[in-house]
Amino acid sequence: MRTFLDAKAMAKAMREALADKNIEISQSEALEIVARQFGLETWNMLSARIERGESRGSAAKAGNEIAFEQAVPIVRIFDVVKAHEFYLGFLGFGIDWEHRYGDNFPLYTQVSRAGLRLHLSEHSGDASPGGNMVVYMNGIEALQRELAGKNYRYMKPGLETVEDRLEVEVIDPFGNRIRFMEIVEGG
């Protein structure tokens, strides 16, 4: 299966070739076309398969075994600037890809950090504001020190011991809660 960068390079090459013929398409439109060239309906589906290293049809070859992949929560946002300030600036995520159906349309994007992927969406039907998620992790004390050191004006998360785990809770500007948890050995 091609890599994520290969697929993006294909989209860029297509846009450039079309521009030479005075046909303009957006990057999002080019990515959707590349996904269809691989036999998938959307760019989101192709990028997920690329990230997993899954070749076309490999799921069908697995037989009747059931195997779940990582769940990717969809988080409702209302303001891209505030979302970037929180998820990119404060939490340290990076943007994997962004999608809009056209100019002045809502944003749908994937951000990730250290194996955790989240989809942020301005689309009203994708998720309800005020969601709550749990993220199990290792290195929670380092995460808490990092976040405290950023001096983010809206949040100063602490580290809490709850039964057999350590927790750091953050709340985004849209009321969505993320509870980072690490199980304590022997707790």
Please explain how this structure is put together.
There is one protein chain. With about 190 residues, this protein is an alpha/beta fold. The protein has two domains: about 5-60, no CATH class; about 75-185, 2,3-Dihydroxybiphenyl 1,2-Dioxygenase, domain 1, CATH 3.10.180. Helix content is about 35%, strand content about 25%. The protein is built from six helices and eight strands; from the N terminus they run ααααβαββββαβββ. It has helices at about 5-20, 25-35, 45-50, 60, 80-90, 140-150; strands at about 75, 95-100, 110-115, 115-120, 130-135, 160, 165-170, 175-185. The strands form two sheets. It has a four-stranded mixed β-sheet, with helices on one face. The longest helix is centred in the N-terminal third of the chain and has 17 residues, at about 5-20. It is globular and about 60 Å long. The protein starts with a helix and ends with a strand. The relative contact order is 0.12. The mean pLDDT is about 85.
Total strand segments: 8
- In CATH, the architecture of the largest domain is Roll
Low-confidence stretches: none
Which H/E pattern describes the elements? HHHHEHEEEEHEEE
CATH level-4 homologous superfamily of the largest domain:
2,3-Dihydroxybiphenyl 1,2-Dioxygenase, domain 1
What proportion of the residues is helical, as a percent range?
25-40%
* Major sheet attributes: 4 strands, mixed
Give the strand order, joined by hyphens, for the main sheet: 1-4-3-2
Oligomerization state of this entry?
single chain
Assess the beta-strand content as a share of residues: 15-25%
SS content category:
alpha/beta
Instruction: Calculate the mean pLDDT score and round it.
Output: 86
Whole-angstrom Rg: 19 Å
The CATH topology annotation of the largest domain reads as 2,3-Dihydroxybiphenyl 1,2-Dioxygenase, domain 1
CATH class of the largest domain: Alpha Beta
Please give the alpha-carbon distance between the first and last residues. 43 Å
SS summary, helix count: 6
